[in-house]
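P.,

For your records, the input lines for the assembly:
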Amino acid sequence: ETSAKVIDGKAVAKQIKDEIKIEVLKMKDAIGVVPGLAVILVGDRKDSATYVRNKKKACEAVGITSYEICLPEDSTEEDVLKHIADYNENPKVHGILIQLPLPRHMDEARILNAVSIDKDVDGFHPLNIGLLAKRDREPFFVSCTPKGCIELLHRYGITIKGKRAVIIGRSNIVGLPVSLLLQREDATITIVHSRTENPEEIVRQADIIVSAAGKANMVRGSWIKPGAVIIDVGINPIDDPESPRGYRLVGDVCYDEACKVASAITPVPGGVGPMTIAMLLSNTLDSAKRALKFE
Amino acid sequence: ETSAKVIDGKAVAKQIKDEIKIEVLKMKDAIGVVPGLAVILVGDRKDSATYVRNKKKACEAVGITSYEICLPEDSTEEDVLKHIADYNENPKVHGILIQLPLPRHMDEARILNAVSIDKDVDGFHPLNIGLLAKRDREPFFVSCTPKGCIELLHRYGITIKGKRAVIIGRSNIVGLPVSLLLQREDATITIVHSRTENPEEIVRQADIIVSAAGKANMVRGSWIKPGAVIIDVGINPIDDPESPRGYRLVGDVCYDEACKVASAITPVPGGVGPMTIAMLLSNTLDSAKRALKFE
Ligand SMILES: NC(=O)C1=CN([C@@H]2O[C@H](COP(=O)(O)OP(=O)(O)OC[C@H]3O[C@@H](n4cnc5c(N)ncnc54)[C@H](OP(=O)(O)O)[C@@H]3O)[C@@H](O)[C@H]2O)C=CC1
Ligand SMILES: NC(=O)C1=CN([C@@H]2O[C@H](COP(=O)(O)OP(=O)(O)OC[C@H]3O[C@@H](n4cnc5c(N)ncnc54)[C@H](OP(=O)(O)O)[C@@H]3O)[C@@H](O)[C@H]2O)C=CC1
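Structure tokens returned:
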């Protein structure tokens, strides 16, 4: 019985953060400036507050300055746009994050569009997506989670070119940009979504599976071609009476079954998750370098 | 022996042009304005001149005013940008086309980017591609040839949702936007390109095949699942001593073989080709309606 190699996102993320820390120091020594990341949080969702806190801590750990605005739930779109405009102008800020979801009374597209294209470290601006999709063009930023998926493949020396890649999910923030990135590296991509018939047959053809459906344990061992590489983006809570919180987090892929068939797999947690913040820091550093014409 | 239904792009294009003509007349009657399309041609390539002439004729036939600037091969980028800026400002112009290819000394991306996003009737601006890719957004314009492919499927009542679609080719102007359009309509898409291994196996799974590879007769009968629908975008010259010009045009799909397996197929010429200009006129009309808030 074989057992898949574990793709250790936590370790890779740590390594990347160490690399970033060194580069930030170099920048500080050379030109006396450090990168800055601004986060705008609207409302008081607990999970959002946690994410923002984690991003702040991660910035501090590598020497990136973090800026933060917390607005009340009943703020207007104009309030948010005002703060975005300020950060767009502020030369100390090289990346701007709008923590999603926004309150329901706000037009998300309008607000995301207001972020200056060269500070859109989330890579969600449609122009960044268009530049990513177009073959001869380069986006200013690639979204953090998708970039993290590809980075894991790279750091583990997994060949992408010419391989069949099946991406499960086509969301703007994960599935779509992952697909575009894999195609840029010459994979032959198939995108599975909720309207796809016989997804298991299609997934079984994949050399590389990226799952971002948000369905606990959907991808069974029988869906996987022996030797396939699996990047599991899903983060799904399932009941677990033995856990102190009453639940635990699992991926989209049935890990125990997949381990016996795949050649490599990301665990959940500890796979793609930690890479997202590392890529956010990396995008912020790149943005600062570009703005300051450093290196 | 079965024989595929012929998807008659010439007839559909004629029907669409008749529809446009009526709408242009309505607009003229109601507000005294007709749509305007501007074409910028640089250099003296014969094929480009022919395309431009055909577009002009097509405009005239439906009552759209056409504007044209022909610049010498040795013009500068600034010359072209100047004319684009003029057309961007000109309220009589609702669509601007830059005839490609541009002379080699010009930066194509820079020039295409200069076209105002709401006059980009070719839909080549990266922002339009990004809006097309993002699920909850709408592009200002969809590129003409890809839109023509989908329009043919619609007008022939071919179901897209839930079907396996294989797109051969991933160019910015055909393969990529066709893929995004099919996915928007809930097809499960696979994109085949020059680095794809065993393309025939993949193509054989398709319910809908869209080929835009530019390789004469590449797709053989054995590549096609019985009953599949084929949209052949390829236009490829092959030697033909019997033709007065010494060559004739064929598609990417081996037509005689495909006819025996497919349920429906576009011929070359007379399939997708005529649809492109019809869609250009349609985009120009839509643009004028939007600009003039008509209807
Ligand atoms: N840092 C990290 O690690 C991150 C993890 N995530 C996790 O990734 C997962 C996906 O997130 P996100 O992309 O935002 O989710 P969305 O809900 O926006 O998108 C889910 C996608 O999966 C498809 N899908 C849903 N059910 C099925 C099914 N049964 N079979 C096939 N496809 C299906 C949907 O199809 P359709 O389009 O037809 O509806 C949709 O395209 C979540 O678990 C999320 O928590 C997300 C972001 C970051
Ligand atoms: N109005 C109309 O009907 C129009 C017709 N056309 C015709 O459509 C065809 C494609 O045009 P365009 O998209 O501009 O062409 P490009 O040359 O820009 O793109 C061709 C695409 O096909 C892929 N390809 C090439 N050879 C193979 C192969 N052997 N197997 C699989 N994939 C292959 C290429 O792969 P890779 O990316 O790896 O290089 C590329 O993605 C041409 O014949 C063109 O004349 C085009 C526009 C309008």
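Two observations worth noting. Residues 32-124 of chain B form a domain with the Rossmann fold fold (CATH 3.40.50.10860). Chain B touches chain A through 34 residues (CB under 8 Å).

Regards
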